[in-house]
Amino acid sequence: MSVLVGKKAPSFKAKAVQGEIIIDEFSLEQFLGEKYVVLFFYPKDFTFVCPTELHRFQEEIAQFEARGVQVVGCSTDSEFSHWAWLNTPKAQGGIQGVSYPLVADINKTISEDYDVLAGEMVLDDEDNIEIEGELVAYRGLFLIDKNGVVRHQVVNDMPLGRSINECLRVIDALQHFEENGEVCPMDWQKGEDAMIADHAGVSKYLSK
Q1: CATH label of the domain that carries residue 52
Q2: Pick the catalytic residue: 50, 74, 167, 184?
Q3: 124 — pLDDT class (breaks 50, 70, 90)
Q4: How many domains does the chain have?
Q5: Residue 65 falls within a domain, yes or no?
Q6: Where in the numbering of this chain does the Thioredoxin domain appear (predicted)?
């Protein structure tokens, strides 16, 4: 698994769906210098754990917007699958009401570039391509800053849903560091004391 933290987020142009609109060329570059981005991958449309995550991001969308963060979802489904899922009511297993964009990684190149693609293509003894496993995305999440640099990543196996609270906590920690130059210890929450390194390299708590 590649560690992308500290590196430029892989760029891409792909079809995406936002509400009723299919976007022909969606790119994260539109947010450079303007917004942070939470890019999260999920395995499949019309499944079980995935809609709980997509709905949860929507429930907290105001929290992300207040922090200047654009939420973007991505799976290896087509834009038509995304569109159909977005137009299916929640009571019927759909994600109707989700307002942030969903990227269609139908060629699986985005998942590959972010190193969250499960399964792999191998050659048999006759040089025929075989697929081992299923070529869908793990539950990867990447926090990208306004300069397009990945500052946080987490990847879960498919049965394991993520924590929206932890995602927001990490955003708060990054923004606190950027604004104050103070580092945030384990389990730090917004409004708590942070830390600063002295010239000897020893971190000390700051009192408010």
Answers
A1: 3.40.30.10
A2: 50
A3: low
A4: 1
A5: yes
A6: 3-176
How many angstroms separate the Cα of 29 from the Cα of each of 69, 70, 125, 145?
14, 12, 42, 12
Distances in Å between the Cα of 69 and the Cα atoms of 37, 122, 149 are: 5, 38, 14
Q: Which amino acid is at 128?
A: N
Tell me, yes or no, if 50 is annotated catalytic: yes
Q: Cα angle vertex 63, ends 58, 65, to 5°?
A: 85
| Confidence band for 194, pLDDT divided at 50, 70 and 90 | confident
Bridge partner residues of 154 (DSSP): 141
Residue 126: which domain range? 14-162
In a domain, 32, yes or no: yes
Q: Is residue 127 a part of any domain in this protein?
A: yes
